[in-house]
Amino acid sequence: MNAVKGLRLEWIEAGSLGENPLNWRKHPPEQLQSLQDLLQDPEIGWAGACLFNERTGRLIDGHARKAVVDPKTPLPVLVGSWSEEAEKKILATLDPVGAMATGDAAMYAKLVEQVDAQSLWVRDLIQATQNQLSAAGDGDEPVADDTPTAALPQMECQPFEHYDYIMLMFKNEQDFQQACERLAIKKVQITYPGGKVKVGLGRVIDGAKAMRTLSEKAS
């Protein structure tokens, strides 16, 4: 008989859940935005629970969910009690075991035909999953639109972040090119939800940096 006590479900404030120093999973901005949009969807909300070890006071699963909510927000948490050794074993195997599952591209396509996703990030997540399933069926790796290069920086302002902004419109190419030169606008790369990478002119720029650039050129 298993000596470990059974799990119980509790609602616990996010800020009181200790993070695990050995958490090896990294959460890119596009994943966090997709997760946040799903949590804010009134038809979905919390459709899963975090996993917490009360013996060590640390999360085992749910770091991303904790990251996208206010620290005062109560989260659904499955609470258990494990030794340090057992906690490490769960942390090392929980996601890899899930990742061993394979996907049926036709069944997934049938499923998403019946899904009405309003969020851009969720739609792109679904599309990326379909592309990966199709590529796996063909025996090919998904190919990005452009190959990232260390010579090109990432775009400064990401589309999933909030900004106050001013939009400049130019009626001719000469004025546009002059503005690009004065504002130091150059080619950059951007990573979209699902991992797609594109390279193009960095038309969305940091306002404070643009003001400093103009000030330096004027002096």
Write a concise synopsis of the structure shown.
This protein is an alpha+beta fold.
Characteristics of this structure?
4-stranded mixed beta sheet; Conserved hypothetical protein from pyrococcus furiosus pfu- 392566-001, ParB domain; 3 domains; single chain; alpha+beta
What is the percent of helical residues?
25-40%
Largest sheet: 4 strands, mixed
- Structural class by helix and strand composition: alpha+beta
Total of helices: 7
C-alpha-based Rg, rounded: 23 Å
Mean pLDDT: 83
| Secondary-structure element pattern, one letter each | EHEEHEHHHHEEH
Q: In words, what does this structure look like?
A:
The chain is built from seven helices and six strands; from the N terminus they run βαββαβααααββα. It is of the alpha+beta class. The protein is extended and about 70 Å long.
